[in-house]
Amino acid sequence: MQDLVQSVDRALCILEVLSDYENGLGIAEISEKANLHKSTVYRFINTLIFKGYVHQDIPTNKYLLTLKLFELGNKKIEKMNLISVAQPYLKELMENTDEVVHLVVREENELIYVSKVEPKKSIIMYTRIGMRKPMYCTSMGKAIMAELTEEEVQDIWDESDIQRYTDHTIINFSDLKNDLKDVKLKGYAIDNQEVETGIICLGVVLKDYTNKICGAISASGSTIHFTEDKIDFISKSLLDCADKISKELGYRN
Predict the structure, then answer these.
(1) Residue/partner pairs of 125-129 with CB below 8 Å, 24 or more apart
(2) Among 59, 75, 147, 225, which residue's beta carbon has the most beta carbons within 10 A?
(3) Distance (Å, rounded) from C-alpha 197 to C-alpha 84?
(4) Is 26:57 a contact under the CB 8 Å cutoff?
């Protein structure tokens, strides 16, 4: 494990704790959840307030996150041409399939959701912008992994926290490798209730002007509606959408 700067680690720990409580927490609650002494929490909270990352709700005396972290993250996202280029195509894909459409980027062994387009009849999906999910059990993650070397896939598996989210989650590496072989043949990946029961997701990769993977997109819906014919239609629509986005990003076969 790399050497940690204790003060930075503690400050980030407090921010992460507060991020889970939209109504804020008091000093004693933060102290308990962050496993830090109350005097330490108080000292760090004052610094975070001074820097604009936290503010205190006077009526309740609770501390809440400001939007400064979002603003910092947004600066990074704004520089990602991918989102602005992809957005109209994602909307078109949603309208064509009448299903929920996602766009993700990879960060190490996880996916970060950077865009979500929903139809009016949208099913309830527990996804939001900024959410992270593992690669090994998501359609978009598997679509990306199918493009990697065996060594890279092994590294992702070894460094992931393998969990059984549903009865359908792949938790055996040999099963994943067989699944990835199928992805290579079809050109798209399927998450068949591996993350959420009752939800099927189809995912494909996006590539940029360097001919490298820069993200992935998916269409998700209920197992009730995803018949074989619907899966065939959505997979073709996804591949067509990905091709358009990739070409606009400068990708050439």
Answers:
(1) 125/100, 125/196, 125/199, 125/220, 126/196, 127/100, 127/102
(2) 147
(3) 32
(4) no
Residue position matching structure tokens 């593992």? 134
Cα–Cα distances in angstroms (integers) from residue 148 to residues 38, 133, 143, 163, 181, in the given order = 47, 18, 9, 22, 11
Show me where the domains of the chain are located. Answer: 6-70, 80-248
Using alpha carbons only, how large is the chain's radius of gyration in Å?
A: 21
Per DSSP, the residues of 70-132 read HHHHHHHHHT-HHHHHHHHHHHHHHHHHTSEEEEEEEETTEEEEEEEE--TTPPP----TT-E
Both structure tokens of 192: 């068949």
**Taking all residues of the chain, what is their mean pLDDT, rounded to a whole number?**
89
Please tell us whether the domain made up of 80-248 is placed in CATH 3.40.190.10. Answer: no
Q: Do domains 6-70 and 80-248 have the same CATH topology?
A: no
- The CATH label, of 2.40.50.100, 1.10.1740.10, 1.10.10.10, 3.30.450.190, for the domain at 6-70 is 1.10.10.10
Task: Report pTM.
Answer: 0.71
- Token readout for 84 is 């602005």
